[in-house]
C-alpha cells in the first residue's frame, strides 16, 4: 500500500523525543511528518486526533522478533505477530531467520517479503541467517532491499542455524560491511552442560546450564574477531553483568553495539522460575538481581544501546513440558512500551530514555531510514499513550497467537491507545483499523 494521500493532525499531545518533551501538534501528510508546532490548522481532507493529556512517542522499532513463519503457524505467523507489534506501538520490526526452512539465501528472503505483503500490520525487514555454507556470499546478499542484515547464532537455540567455530565466524565477518547481529553463547560449553543434565532437574537451573561463563567466553571470542576484522557487530540479548564489564573494558566504540530484552530487565531469578516456571525460560537465561541491576544501569548509560523484545512464542502446551524438553522463548513485542513506562514510574528510566532505547537507537544501529523520530520529513509513525491507563496486564489484550505472557497480572504504567503507521490510524481501542498496511523498511 502506498502512503496515505490524506492528512492527519495529532493535536495537543506531549511529544516525547530523545532531546526533550514538547507540547506540540504534529501534521502528517502523504505518510510523512510535514509540520510541528502549536496551533496547526486542521486539514480539510484528513483526520484530527485530540491528544491532550497524552504522551506521543515515535513509533517503536523492535529489531529482534521471531514470528515463526514459515514453519510454525500454531505458534505465530507474520500476520498475528505484526498485529501484536502494532497493538503495542511497534510500527517497525526486524524478523529473525531461524524459521523452517531458515532464511539463508535470497529466495528464502524474497519468500518472506511475499508472505508479508498485505498481511503485516507494521513495517518490516528480515535478517539472513549465517551458515558455513553461505558465509562467503552474505556480503553480496545483505544489500537486498528490506534486508536487515546478517544474523549469527554462535550457540544453538531455537532452529537449526549455528556458526559455532571461530574460523567460520571470521569468514562471516569478512563477508560484507553491514552490522552483524549475534546470539553469543559458547556452543561447546552448551553441549557439555546439556550432556551432564540429570533427569527431573527444575527450570530454575537454566541460568547454570546456560551459564555466565558460557556467555562471557563466547562474547570474548566475538570481540577478539571484531578487533581482528574491524567488522561492526550488534550483541543481542545481553544477560550478564560480566559481559557489560567486558564491553566497557574493551571499549571498541562504534564497532560494537548491544541490546537487552525487557525480560532481562523485569524478570529476576530465582523468583521468576518459582512463579512462572518454564514461561520464564529463554536463551540466554533470565538471571539474578545482580545481573539485572547492572544491565539496567548499562541501558541508562548507553553501554547497552537499545531494546529488542526477542519475541519468541511457543504454545502453552509446549511450554508446559518438563525442563529441559520445554522450549526456550517468551513473547514480548506487545509489552515493550508498557514495561518501559513502568520503569519510568519506578524512577530508573526517563521518558526521553524510552524514546531513545525504544525508537531511535535501533535505527542508528542498523541504519534504518525515516524511523525513530517525529521530525519533519520522517515517516508518520507514532504511538499515543494514555498515562492514566494503569493496572494489571490483561491477557485479553494480547494479540500474539500463543495468548500468554509472564507479565500478565503485572501492574503497568501507561498503555498504547492509538498507533499510527504512515499517517494512518492502524490500531485503536484494542483493534486493528483497516487492512494491514506494513511495508519493507529502508536502509542507508
Short description:
The chain has helices at residues 78-87, 106-116, 138-141, 166-174, 187-195, 206-209, 212-229, 241-250, 262-266, 271-276, 289-301, 316-319, 336-346, 351-366, and strands at 7-17, 20-29, 32-37, 47-50, 55-58, 60-65, 90-95, 123-129, 147-153, 180-183, 233-235, 256-260, 306-307, 382-392, 411-421, 424-428, 431-432.
Structural class: alpha/beta
Uncertain residue ranges: none
* Portion of residues within helices: 25-40%
The count of strands amounts to: 17
Number of structural domains: 2
CATH superfamily of the largest domain: Metal-dependent hydrolases
- Principal-axis shape equals globular
Q: Proportion of β residues?
A: 15-25%
CATH fold-level assignment of the largest domain? TIM Barrel
Topology:
Elements: E1 7-17, E2 20-29, E3 32-37, E4 47-50, E5 55-58, E6 60-65, H1 78-87, E7 90-95, H2 106-116, E8 123-129, H3 138-141, E9 147-153, H4 166-174, E10 180-183, H5 187-195, H6 206-209, H7 212-229, E11 233-235, H8 241-250, E12 256-260, H9 262-266, H10 271-276, H11 289-301, E13 306-307, H12 316-319, H13 336-346, H14 351-366, E14 382-392, E15 411-421, E16 424-428, E17 431-432
Parallel strand pairs: 1-4, 1-5, 6-7, 7-8, 8-9, 9-10, 10-11, 11-12, 12-13
Antiparallel strand pairs: 1-2, 2-3, 5-14, 14-15, 15-16, 16-17
Amino acid at each position: 500500500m502506498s502512503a496515505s494521500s490524506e492528512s492527519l493532525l495529532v493535536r495537543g499531545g506531549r511529544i516525547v523525543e530523545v532531546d526533550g518533551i514538547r507540547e506540540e501538534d504534529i501534521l502528517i501528510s502523504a505518510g510523512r511528518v510535514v509540520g510541528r508546532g502549536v496551533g496547526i490548522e486542521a486539514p480539510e481532507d484528513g483526520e484530527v486526533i485530540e491528544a491532550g493529556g497524552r504522551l506521543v512517542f515515535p513509533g517503536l522499532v523492535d529489531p529482534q522478533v521471531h514470528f515463526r513463519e514459515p514453519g510454525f503457524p500454531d505458534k505465530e505467523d507474520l500476520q498475528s505477530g505484526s498485529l501484536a507489534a502494532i497493538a503495542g506501538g511497534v510500527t517497525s520490526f526486524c524478523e529473525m531467520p531461524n524459521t523452517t526452512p531458515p532464511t539463508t539465501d535470497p529466495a528464502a528472503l524474497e519468500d518472506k517479503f511475499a508472505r508479508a505483503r498485505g498481511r503485516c500490520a507494521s513495517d518490516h525487514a528480515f535478517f539472513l541467517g549465517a551458515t558455513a555454507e553461505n558465509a562467503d556470499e552474505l556480503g553480496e546478499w545483505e544489500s537486498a532491499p528490506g534486508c536487515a542484515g546478517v544474523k549469527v547464532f554462535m550457540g544453538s537455540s531455537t532452529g537449526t542455524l549455528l556458526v559455532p567455530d571461530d574460523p567460520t565466524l571470521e569468514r562471516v565477518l569478512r563477508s560484507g560491511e553491514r552490522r552483524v547481529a549475534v546470539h553469543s553463547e559458547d556452543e561447546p560449553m552448551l553441549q557439555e552442560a546439556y550432556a551432564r543434565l540429570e533427569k527431573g532437574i527444575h527450570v530454575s537451573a537454566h541460568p547454570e546450564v546456560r551459564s555466565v561463563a558460557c556467555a562471557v567466553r563466547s562474547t570474548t571470542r566475538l570481540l577478539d574477531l571484531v578487533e581482528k576484522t574491524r567488522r561492526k557487530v550488534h550483541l543481542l540479548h545481553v544477560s550478564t553483568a560480566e559481559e557489560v564489564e567486558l564491553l566497557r573494558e574493551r571499549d571498541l566504540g562504534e564497532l560494537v553495539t548491544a541490546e537487552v530484552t525487557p525480560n532481562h530487565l523485569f524478570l529476576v531469578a530465582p523468583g521468576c522460575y518459582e512463579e512462572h516456571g518454564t514461561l520464564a525460560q529463554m536463551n540466554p537465561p533470565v538471571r539474578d538481581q545482580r545481573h539485572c541491576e547492572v544491565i539496567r544501569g548499562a541501558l541508562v548509560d548507553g553501554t547497552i544501546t537499545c531494546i529488542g523484545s526477542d519475541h519468541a512464542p511457543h504454545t502453552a502446551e509446549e511450554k508446559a513440558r518438563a525442563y529441559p524438553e520445554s522450549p526456550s522463548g517468551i513473547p514480548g513485542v506487545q509489552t515493550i512500551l508498557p514495561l518501559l513506562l513502568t520503569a519510568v514510574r519506578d524512577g530508573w528510566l526517563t521518558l526521553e530514555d524510552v524514546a531513545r532505547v525504544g525508537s531511535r537507537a535501533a535505527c542508528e544501529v542498523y541504519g534504518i531510514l525515516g524511523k525513530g523520530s517525529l521530525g519533519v520529513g520522517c515517516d508518520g509513525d507514532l504511538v499515543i499513550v494514555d498515562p492514566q491507563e494503569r493496572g494489571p496486564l490483561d491477557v485479553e489484550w494480547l494479540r500474539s497467537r500463543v495468548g500468554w505472557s509472564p507479565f500478565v497480572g503485572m501492574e503497568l504504567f501507561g498503555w498504547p491507545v492509538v498507533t499510527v503507521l504512515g499517517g494512518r490510524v492502524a490500531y485503536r481501542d484494542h483493534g486493528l483499523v483497516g487492512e494491514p498496511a506494513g511495508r519493507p523498511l529502508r536502509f542507508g
